[in-house]
């Protein structure tokens, strides 16, 4: 049996891959061990339990999301930056649909790195909103509203909603984003 060089990053990437094949709820130490063709106790050299694997995967995903959001918003006017934020967030959620729920485990994980990464994601959004001469309380509420709209749309979409022929899912998403932006454009 060939000895593999295992590390936390390989386990995180395997978690994402396995989740796409068998579902996140089915990813376990035995399934990961099977994936690597090793014995499950070998995984304990890298993580204490599956909760740690999920948190490490969430950190990995949040880094990717933050990088993608930042890149998509660079050198754009505030309205276009918010459009880019929305589209990038949706694209990320679609690409990582099997593990998307992990980026929402931030508060319950109490992992400082994950919280900091999440806060950076929020700061990106708030910095764009600051360009509209809004009061700080209004920035807070608009930020929460926009993130809630995005997450709600993505969650419902992943649950199989938005299948009617009257409008495509993409048309509804674009409409939702534009309805958020119209009042801002007049500021």
Automatic annotation (TrEMBL):
Keyword annotations of the record: DNA-binding, Transcription, Transcription regulation
Gene Ontology molecular-function annotations: DNA binding
SUPFAM superfamilies named in the record: Homeodomain-like (SSF46689), Tetracyclin repressor-like, C-terminal domain (SSF48498)
Organism field: Lactococcus fujiensis JCM 16395
All copies of domain HTH tetR-type, residue ranges: 5-65
Pfam families, sorted: TetR_C_33, TetR_N
Highest taxon in the source lineage: Bacteria
InterPro entries: Homeodomain-like_sf, HTH_TetR, MT1864/Rv1816-like_C, Tet_transcr_reg_TetR-rel_C_sf
Listed name of the protein: TetR family transcriptional regulator
Keyword Transcription regulation: yes
DNA-binding region: 28-47
Coiled coil: none
Record keyword Transcription regulation present: yes
């Amino acid at each position: 049996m060939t000895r593999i060089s295992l590390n936390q990053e390989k386990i995180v990437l395997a978690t994402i891959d396995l989740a796409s094949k068998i579902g996140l709820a089915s990813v376990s130490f035995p399934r990961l061990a099977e994936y690597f063709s090793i014995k499950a106790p070998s995984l304990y050299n890298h993580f204490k339990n599956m909760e740690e694997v999920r948190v490490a995967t969430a950190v990995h995903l949040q880094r990717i999301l933050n990088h993608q959001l930042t890149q998509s918003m660079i050198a754009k006017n505030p309205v276009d930056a918010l459009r880019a934020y929305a589209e990038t967030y949706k694209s990320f959620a679609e690409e990582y649909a099997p593990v998307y729920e992990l980026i929402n485990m931030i508060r319950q994980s109490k992992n400082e790195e994950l919280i900091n990464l999440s806060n950076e994601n929020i700061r990106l959004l708030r910095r764009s909103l600051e360009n509209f001469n809004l009061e700080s309380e209004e920035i807070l509420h608009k930020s929460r509203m926009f993130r809630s709209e995005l997450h709600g749309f993505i969650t419902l979409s992943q649950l199989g909603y938005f299948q009617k022929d009257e409008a495509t899912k993409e048309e509804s998403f674009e409409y939702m984003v534009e309805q958020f932006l119209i009042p801002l454009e007049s500021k």
